[in-house]
């Protein structure tokens, strides 16, 4: 997109091409200029500013060859809208066939040194760890699937708290790194950790084995975080995490997350200012993203009764827009809007519990009826309980938001209904916020390819 001045379009000649506007296109006014429109392709995450008269020519299929070529390259005009919709029906098959990464989320244990107030694993926590025998079966499971078509193995070490199993991380990484490199591939891993055990010594030892990214949670400033995420002993954790971030930022990419609620999200701005004051500046953090706490399904026991059940809750619109603006305003990166697919649709993504049971999403670990097999005996042949392809219906396939939603989050549908029997449609949420988010990306030069 050209920022400033007028886009380089020709206005005086056209061919009767009859190219049609894409089904997956959003059109927004540009500031106070009636002569300009902002176009955004939800399928390609492309955006451009054009004169309104060019858009009206596109509506009629009367673009100049130059304009038609550019808008076609951006995915904003297509030869046939019906054929475009049909092609979307097979997009997951296409993405899966091109995917060169075998992605494993490995739950090393169900024990944690924190006692988070809203933990969604609360009813399954305990002193449960990946055994040596299960680790051996895991290596065999990966070996069978890391074939010649795969170029990278990416492990997301998860818990509980994965750093309580650091010896296992090191042992597995050494073995798997050797295995995939012998087959011409590469090995990398990430950590989803509370950050309390991520010391300089730990970071350096893991970086040498392939650590690429660490995801750490900070629930706002200290006075909120320490209530929501204390140690099991009741001690505060905020200062320890901040110290560890300061000591390790140069060893690997660090991403920060945070979980907010309706009564505290405005306080998260203070966390951003605190980070900068402490020298944890945008050049030292890969990305920051804050998300609302999800409500726990009512059919499962939990002391925590807060959180949200869907993105349609009215307070989430101003909260999401404000927090994203404040992150970007201070120079931190945050994920751009782009084509997004749920892990349940990926044929080469697995969530493996400490006992070898296989799931498709971490939110369903331990939930009866949601395992898809085990690493010892293989995958089940029965239909997936996650119902991939639920979005393959007339309403979803014709929706301009389909590439950003694909029927929404299965776990949010589960939170709402206690089972997966309907879509988690995000149309209302995207109607209310997407324009703001796209204009934020333009204002702060956020690239969809960069995050």
Automatic annotation (TrEMBL):
Pfam families according to UniProt: Radical_SAM
CDD domains: Radical_SAM (cd01335)
GO molecular function: 4 iron, 4 sulfur cluster binding; metal ion binding; oxidoreductase activity
Domain Radical SAM core positions: 96-333
Keywords attached to this entry: 4Fe-4S, Iron, Iron-sulfur, Metal-binding, S-adenosyl-L-methionine
Superkingdom of the source species: Bacteria
Cofactor(s) listed in the protein's UniProt record: [4Fe-4S] cluster
Record carries keyword DNA damage: no
Stated name of the protein: Radical SAM core domain-containing protein
Organism listed in the record: uncultured Desulfobacterium sp
